[in-house]
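Render Branched-chain amino acid ABC transporter substrate-binding protein in 3D.
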Amino acid sequence: MHLEPTTRTRRGTRALAAAASAAALALTVTACSTGGSEPTSDEPLTIVGFLPQTGAQASAVQPLLAGVQLAIDDINAAGGVFGQDVVYEAQDSTSDNDTAAAAAETVLNSDASIVIGTYGSGMAAAVAPTITEAGIVQVSGSNTSSALTGISPLYFRTAPTDALESARIADLVAGDGHTTVGIIWQNDAWGAAFEEGMVSNFEAAGLEVLANESFNTEETDYSAQVNAVVAAEPDAVVFLSYAVYSGAMVEQLVGTNGFPSANVYFSSSTLGDYTDSVSDLSFLEGVQAFQPGADVDTQAEYEARLLEIDPELTAFAYSASTYDATIVAALAAQVAGSTDGEAIAAAMPEVSGSTGDGETCTTYADCLAILEDGGSIDYDGLTGSIEFDDNNDVGATNYLHFVYAADGTFAVVE
């Protein structure tokens, strides 16, 4: 989906917004103490979804795009922001960090107050400074790299950092009785930060790292990395890689070298559909992974709603946290009574419940009703409590534990 932007250019608007920044922040203090204030502008709030619609990551991002659209639908059905429908624009970030920088220029020339995205952490590192320095709040439901912590006062994320996930993986591997491990990781900003935390958590859990192999995403032959791991003879192997790159390595590790698939562990970004990249889907049988998401019943209900938007969806990774990113940002704008990015950012901690003593609410409609009655709110989303810390990261999340079956499908372990 792509809605044509309005004719008003954002750069001119941003110059005026910068001059009014102090006034906007003063209004935010009042807003946060009273549960909301009259909007300082008669313009509607504009949210841009900055996610890949083309390139290697496009198929994996479909559930995120559907999640943003569902959130926008829920916001507008409840009365919108400032009593007006939110304007939503879906901007193709592309799947490449270099071309994403050019795509970000389109966002800067739009009316966006809030950007939902990016998909990958490496792309966030490339474009978040540009987006946030222009006064736009950026909220991601899928960026997990610890390297992004504190990158900007206007950058937030509802996805947990890989520091939290690596601790979960280490506990799982150790709990399964393994004492040695090999790691294959993606050599980019996301993978490097994840690998560092993973090694630290393995050591803390008493696991010895026998092999630690990186790969570059432009490579097509990973036999050297896989053979090095196999030669080290670890009890378990952990992949810190995007699914789009991992099928060939699983094929070589399990299919060619005969490594037990039940001793393989995926990161949340490795979890995915391997129908087109693994010759025998039984090579995945028993592989385990964690991924942030709603509890089982909530997730099932959410997925049913997503399928009404996009019936072709088969996976739902990071969709719920992206939905939450959209809702919490819109609520912050409502509380701030402003489309100014700094004012919205200032309201995010209280709306998320990390400051203040707001009333807990779990839907946009319920939260808006509390605000309209003069109260303050603490939004708990699909993925549980969303409390931004001083670096705008979430400190905890609900993780789902997945395991693959012999047919290549994966399901939550009850």
